[in-house]
Every structure is written in structure tokens, then in C-alpha cells.
Amino acid sequence: MWEVPQLNQPGGCLQPWGFYRCGPCKMILPQLVVMAREMEGRAHIVKFNCNKYNKELGISLGIKVAPTFLLYKNGEQVCPGAWLQNALFSRD
Predict the structure, then answer these.
(1) Which residues contact 37 (CB under 8 A, 6 or more apart)?
(2) Distance CA 3, CA 91 (A)
(3) Which of 18, 29, 73, 89 is 20–30 Å from 38 (CA)?
């Protein structure tokens, strides 16, 4: 399986999957930039483009529409497909 190094670090990792021609993906991008600044040092945002180079990875992760958000916390996927900023920092 393909790995993103940030997934195994403490904290969380948000993976937004989108496409450069996707209107909703473009609308969300500024908020992702703000979130990345706010979460610096506590969590990571790793953006993926649903193009031919990431097609197999997207299929293996169940990506069917853009945008799709995958949320990982401490290396485990939580809230698949969710957009839950607070879930990154919820206390166990």
C-alpha cells in the first residue's frame, strides 16, 4: 500500500481529494490554506489531485467523487469522507 509519511505522526492528517477543474474543490481551497496555517505543528493537510497519476491510489481508498476528504488520526482513518475539522483535536 502507498504511504503518506504524515499519516503515522502524532496528531491528524486531512487528505482532500479533488480535481483541478472541480468547482467545489476550487471553492474549498482557500479554507484549506487557512486550516493548514492554523493547524501547523499539530496536524497536516496533504492535498491530492484525482488525476491519472493518483487514479489507482484513489480507487484503492474508495474515492468516487470530488471533493472527498479522508481524515486520519494517529495513523488510523477516522470519519471517512468527512469534513470534521474538530475531529482532529478531539480528546480520546
Answers:
(1) none
(2) 26
(3) 18
pLDDT, tens digit, for every residue of 23-42? 988 888 898 888 889 888 88
CA distance 63 to 86: 22
- What range does the domain containing 76 cover? 12-88
**Which CATH number characterizes residue 39's domain?**
3.40.30.10
Residues 6+ away with beta carbon under 8 Å from 9 = 44
Number of compact structural domains in the chain: 1
Cell matching residue 2: 502507498
**Amino acid residing at 65:** V
* pTM for the predicted model, two decimal places: 0.73
Rounded to an integer, what distance in angstroms lies between the CA atom of residue 17 and that of residue 50?
6
